[in-house]
Amino acid sequence: MKALHLTAGQAKAICGLSAREHALQPVPLADGTFIISLSVLADPAHGKHTAILKSLPEINIPDSEARPDLYESDPVKIEAASWRTAEAAK
Q1: What is the DSSP letter of 56?
Q2: Which one of 12, 26, 46, 87 has the fewest beta carbons within 10 angstroms of its own beta carbon?
Q3: Stated pTM of the model
Q4: Which pairs from 45-52 meet CB under 8 Å and 24+ separation?
Q5: What is the CB neighbour count within 10 angstroms for residue 45?
Q6: Looking at the 3D structure of the chain, how many domains does it have?
């Protein structure tokens, strides 16, 4: 998946509510950095974070690293993750 790559400090700066019922929740990676979906750039609800978000580098990361909780040995979680990945690619 394509994502925005954040340091711990950047993740802390944007984490939480952006607007009513809209929040940013960066996902931690094993190396101590964070990612967040590119889709946040297109969501006007996160406008107050636009400058930070647009300055972040884009990375390609395997879904299994982005959401390791979904890639346990549970076939239902694996199927759900595959479906979400396919939907996001459309």
Answers
A1: S
A2: 87
A3: 0.70
A4: 45/18, 45/19, 46/18, 46/19, 46/22, 47/18, 47/19, 48/18, 48/19, 49/14, 49/18, 49/24, 52/10, 52/13, 52/14
A5: 15
A6: 1
Phi, psi of 60 (to 5 degrees): -100, 130
- What CA dihedral angle connects 69, 78, 63 and 4, to 10 degrees? -70
Q: Look at the chain and count its residues.
A: 90
Domain that holds residue 56: 2-89
